[in-house]
Specification:
InterPro entries: CC149. Keywords: Coiled coil. Belongs to the CCDC149 family. This is Coiled-coil domain-containing protein 149. It is built from 6 helices and no strands. With 358 residues, the protein is mostly helical. The chain is 87% helix and 0% strand. The protein has 3 domains: 92 residues; 56 residues; 135 residues.
Length: 358
């Protein structure tokens, strides 16, 4: 029995040891499974990264290919442009050399022309001196002195031309003044004849009286101004009465819906001061505030019309007074002339135009 118990205990111990080993193996397997799962996840991440890197690599290779193509095109273009620039530079160099040679030729021609011009100036100066009757010097001591003399001669010649042009302009002004003088002489002679006709009572004199014409012109201008002012006042009055008529029409339209509610007030039509007095003294008509306002407005308009009419009458009286004053002054002048007229005076008046005509 003891042996069996020991065997059982031994078996239990072995079973416990095996159980522990089994648990350890299970833990190890679980840990290995977790590690395997983690490794699988890492593998998937690495695969995804590898795919991303491959795609990036492909895109980079494509971009690199495009850049290489663009670089080749740019190199070809730069080479062609460089060749064109080199050709242009060579062309401009040749043109520059040609222009320099042309400039040198022009400078030589300029020097030759200066020499020719100097020779021509000397020839012209000699010709002018010979023409003026002077002596010609065959040789000069110095070229600078000769050039200075030629310059002075040209300045004098220019001044002479200016003086000739001034003389021509002065002669033209003189002719214009002579024409104006002749015109004034003719005008004076004509006025002298007219004055002699007036003083001698010749029928060829001017028939109209200038003073009367001027006065008549002033009178007509004053009447025209008065007529214009009256027309303006009439226009203002018509506009005012038009507004009043429109206001009366609006009031009648506003009162028409209330006709069936009660007794209608009699309409008030004011034309002059007499009707206003009758309206105010009448007890049969009841007036409200609007009627009193309308009557006040009409009275103000009538006062304004009276003031305007008074102003027009004052202006007309002023014009008539000025006209009367002018007539009285003319009558006084005629009276003085008639009183101062005598045979001696008439003889003097007759002799004066004769002397003026002479």
């Amino acid at each position: 029995m003891k042996d069996e118990k020991e065997e059982v205990l031994e078996l239990k111990r072995q079973l416990a040891a095996l159980q522990q080993k089994c648990n350890a193996k299970t833990d190890t397997i679980v840990r290995l499974g977790q590690d395997l799962e983690k490794s699988e996840n890492e593998k998937k991440g690495y695969v995804a990264r590898v795919e991303t890197l491959e795609r990036n690599l492909e895109r980079t290779e494509k971009e690199l290919g495009l850049l290489c193509a663009v670089e080749k095109d740019m190199k070809i273009k730069n080479a062609s442009e460089r060749q064109d620039l080199i050709e242009d530079i060579n062309k401009y160099k040749r043109e520059n050399m040609k222009l320099r040679s042309d400039r040198q030729e022009l400078m030589d021609e300029k020097a030759d022309l200066k020499k020719d011009c100097k020779t021509f100036r000397q020839t012209i100066a000699q010709y002018e001196v010979e023409k003026m009757g002077g002596m010609v010097r065959t040789s000069l001591s110095n070229d600078d002195e000769e050039t200075a003399m030629l310059g002075a001669y040209e300045k004098l010649q220019t001044k002479c031309r200016e003086l000739e042009s001034d003389l021509k302009s002065m002669l033209g002004i003189k002719e214009e003044l002579l024409l104006e003088r002749d015109e004034m002489q003719r005008k004076v002679a004509r006025l002298s004849n007219e004055l002699s006709y007036l003083l001698n009572g010749d029928p060829r004199r001017v028939a109209e009286d200038l003073d009367s014409l001027v006065a008549e012109n002033r009178f007509l201008k004053a009447k025209l101004n008065t007529a214009e002012e009256e027309s303006e006042s009439i226009k203002m009055t018509l506009a005012k009465y038009k507004q009043m008529a429109e206001a009366v029409n609006v009031q009648s339209l506003n009162r028409s819906p209330k006709a069936g509610e009660g007794d209608e007030k009699p309409s008030v039509a004011v034309i002059n001061m007499k009707q206003i007095r009758e309206l105010l003294t009448s007890h049969a008509i009841e007036l409200d505030e609007s009627d009193h306002r309308a009557i006040t407005t009409i009275l103000l308009d009538l006062c304004n019309d009276k003031q305007m009419a008074l102003a027009h009458s004052r202006r007309a009286n002023k014009v008539l007074g000025m006209r009367l004053h002018e007539v009285e002054s003319k009558l006084a002048v005629l009276d003085v002339k008639s009183r101062s007229s005598s045979p001696r005076h008439e003889e003097i008046e007759l002799t004066v135009p004769t002397t003026s005509n002479l």
